[in-house]
Amino acid sequence: MKIEFYSLKSILEKCCQYNIIFGERSNGKTYSVLEYGLKNYVATSEKMAIIRRWEEDFKGKRGSEMFSSFSQNGMVSKITKNQWSEIYYYSGRWYLAKREEKTGKIITDEKPFAYAFSLTRSEHDKSSSFSDITTILFDEFLTRGMYLPDEFVVFMNVISTIIRYRDNVKIFMLGNTVNKYCPYFAEMGLKHLTEMKKGDIDVYTYGDTNLRVAVEYADSPNKSKPSDLYFAFDNPKLNMITGGAWELAIYPHCPFKYKPKEIVFIYFIQFMDEILQCEIISHENSLITFIHKKTSEIKNTDTDFIYTCDYNPKHNYHRKITKPTSDIEKRICEFFVKDKVFYQDNETGEIVRNYLQWCKTVQND
What's the fold here for domain 9-243? Predict the structure, then answer.
């Protein structure tokens, strides 16, 4: 079976400064951008920056294997017209290289064609100049793990360090479909992302500026692959691997039907344009919190108990559900600590999971 891989052709036609691409694992997203950067360097001598969240992502074999497939499949020789045959990684830099036939000694180009940047070490790069970098790749910006505190601002600082006062830089942000409630989407105003279907490319503009952001939900190049056999379990989370569906965990649903009079307290969570209604229910011998989406706006914004990521001076607004400061907040927090929280559906559970992770990243602010 011939395996097809992702192509940048469609999103490059949008001519945007930011190009956000998400889809299934191992569909060629990263390879296509690395190839674009390498070809651009050979043609113009303009270099590439590769950004990851953690410094550890570039240590040892992780850094050296970034371009390994280009050496193995002969693409380095093809792109450089046999001037170079492989890529050598050293101290956060990638060099075009070749080996002497007799000695096997590796010979590298004088200057690197790509540089490594990590968000966790962004402060160390501020004094350096990178005026010859015109392609930026932020790989695996989506995660189901922890984001850094104010990570979007940290990322913007790294971008600022690289581009300085230029406007000739093209930025690619790549991710697997592991988390549709990523903080980057809210920070960049990508409001329609959850409505996108595979193959869609949306372009966002920002007022009177020339800024354009293209967002592509990469279609699966192959409707089925031989490797799908290994992920054929009855587990919806594996659809992200085999078909590029958004990964959702399985969350507990309400274990009983309840009457409105059994609702003893209501509070709300506002997170990334979503409003969740949280009901504390006393049913027979059970006391639980049930959370469901609210399809309308909150009516009593001066009196209702509301959790939000934003700062609000009103006494009824609170930010971190994991850091209670009053008796009511302590009682609410107990439901989460004791696993007495149930959800309308898995998507609602996913929103709450991301909100709780956000609470942890700002625990000490």
Answer: Rossmann fold (3.40.50)
Q: Kindly list the domain boundaries of the chain, sorted by start residue.
A: 9-243, 260-361
- Whole-structure pTM value: 0.83
In angstroms, the CA 239 to CA 12 distance is 28
Token pair for residue 319? 């930010």
% helix / strand / coil in the chain, to the nearest 5? 30, 25, 45
In angstroms, the Cα distances linking 313 to 65, 267, 299, 301, 330 are: 50, 17, 18, 12, 20
- The structure tokens listed for 362 are 């700002």
Token look-up 């969240």 returns 53
Q: Are 153 and 66 in contact (CB under 8 A)?
A: no
Q: What is the mean pLDDT of the chain?
A: 90
pLDDT in the model for residue 238: 62
* C-alpha separations of 197 from 192, 217, 221, 297 in Å: 11, 7, 14, 27
The closest of 293, 270, 268, 288 to 278, measured between CA atoms, is: 268
Angle at 165 between CA 162 and CA 168, to 5 degrees: 75
Tell me how far apart the alpha carbons of residues 199 and 221 are, in angstroms, rounded to a whole number.
10
Structure token pair of residue 335: 């439901």
Q: Rounded CA gap, 5 and 140, in Å?
A: 18
Residue identified by tokens 């953690």 is: 54
Question: Is the CB of residue 289 less than 8 Å from the CB of residue 341?
Answer: yes
Q: Are 238 and 250 in contact (CB under 8 A)?
A: no
Q: What is the C-alpha separation between 299 and 241, in angstroms, rounded? A: 41
pLDDT at 272 over 90: no
Q: Name the residue type at position 213.
A: V
